[in-house]
Description:
There is one protein chain. The chain contains one helix and four strands, in the order H-E-E-E-E. By secondary structure, the protein is mainly β. Strands 1-2-3-4 form a four-stranded antiparallel beta sheet, with helices on one face. The longest helix has 12 residues, at 12-23. The mean pLDDT is 83. The chain is globular, with a radius of gyration of 14 Å. A hairpin with a 7-residue loop joins strand 1 (28-36) and strand 2. InterPro entries: Phosphatase_SSH-like, SSH-N. Pfam families: PH_SSH1-like_1st (PF23040).
Amino acid sequence: PPAEPPSQAPGQQEQHLHLMMQLLRPQDAIRLAVRLESARPRRVRYLLVVRPEEEGAEAETALVGVDFAHERAARCTLGMVLPLWSDTQVFLDGDG
């Protein structure tokens, strides 16, 4: 049978998105957010694709890693910022 998704309280994902938006500049927007599996059982991790909302800002796209200490944490921290240039190649490898 397929693995069951991690338990989340209703609205928890929206709360996480709100907290992650507070880390970004006002002109930035999250284009994609993916919850990752973590090696530590309680830690919650996300990988974001972020870029400014203004016209022609594709050149400023970045991958951003965000960490929450646990599911109900009231704050999050940046774990990684990787700017994506026109010649950047990103390879994600692993089980998750």
